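Work Package 3 (structural annotation) set out to generate three-dimensional models for the target panel prioritized at the project kickoff. During this period the team completed the workflow that converts sequence records into discrete structure tokens, so that structures can be stored uniformly alongside our sequence database. As a representative example, we reproduce one entry of 413 residues exactly as it appears in the project archive.
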Amino acid sequence: MPLIRPLAGLCPAANRAAEVAAPPYDVLDSNEARQRAAGKPWSFLHISKPEIDLAPDTDPYDPSVYAKGKENFDRMLKEGVLQQDPAPYYYLYRLIMGSHQQVGLVAAARVSDYDSNRIRKHEFTRPDKEDDRVRQIDSLSAQTGPVFLTYKHSAVIDALVAQAISATPDMDITADTGVRHTLWRVTDAAQIDLITRTFDAMDCLYIADGHHRSAAASRVAAARQAANPQHSGEEAYNYFLSVIFPDNQMQILDYNRVIKDLNGHTPDSFLAAVGQAFTVEKTGGQCKPGKAGEFGMYLQGQWYRLTIKAELIPQNDPVKRLDVSLLQDNLIAPLLGINDPRRDKRIDFVGGIRGLSELERRVNSGEMAVAFALHATSMAQLMAVADAGEVMPPKSTWFEPKLADGLVSHLLD
């Protein structure tokens, strides 16, 4: 069985994509989703965040939520808002945000290659979030949230993509965020075969975003295989919905930190302590790090540039060399007493898409005491961690632009 294969996607009917497309389920909370879906009966948020159609105090993990999602899903199928394509295709998915653009391949990726680490991971998952995705997939018998994958770019795929996207697209919408989402179906049998063979010759793929979705797909596949005496390996549940982008088109933004207090330090004693591991310089305005090993710090209305001392950078550990690790290991843990940033409520994380002004706002409001701006993790660093079989610290990468939910789903029946 190949690493990837085409799928008969479930897509919005002609001219309905703008009504259906929605932000990914995990970038909005329930209240935000309720507001975004107001007056939009066909928004995919009614499937991906169905608690918005129940009482506001409903637990988003309550069984009634998954039942409501199934009801909404079935309604959109019955009304013809969503329609399954007549044959398995690949799809090319272009995202344009400002001057940045990237083109990925929508495909079904093989679960067994995820299980064997040919589709490589770089994050831990949380059991509660995995359980949520398992229940969502099982209730719909479909995968509606694509896993964001990447590969080491290929001239063969680049040429095929350039040719395909010169045609008239099948869907072309601009979201309210300003991001343009464009989709082309790849229906030619020879092109489909070439794509399948080219990807199957690759050593591996890498998960950029979607560790919980891929882990849930693996669990669903294992359960369905165990319950199917006629299991052949060809069933749809053996594959998971993915969008696969070349590494040289990916855009990772900084993922910044804000912290509630100085752990008993005064501002002066804190600055003195920071100077043990970093050079500290005042700046005249916002400090956006320009290179690895450099950090911006906002404290009491003043920005500082911090530069990690060279002797503190490990040479042969792809995880410990990451800027998120250098800041955690040399400042956040020893000085601020936050040893488990995954669970400690004194720390919060701010995606780089919000800009440094959001860090200033959080500190100036008194909600937080200090903020740190980081240099973005690189794709090379992400791949090195995954290749080493290691995992990154939490909140190491923030990918932009985000994929839309609802443009292509993968039915498991």
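The chain has 13 helices and 21 strands.
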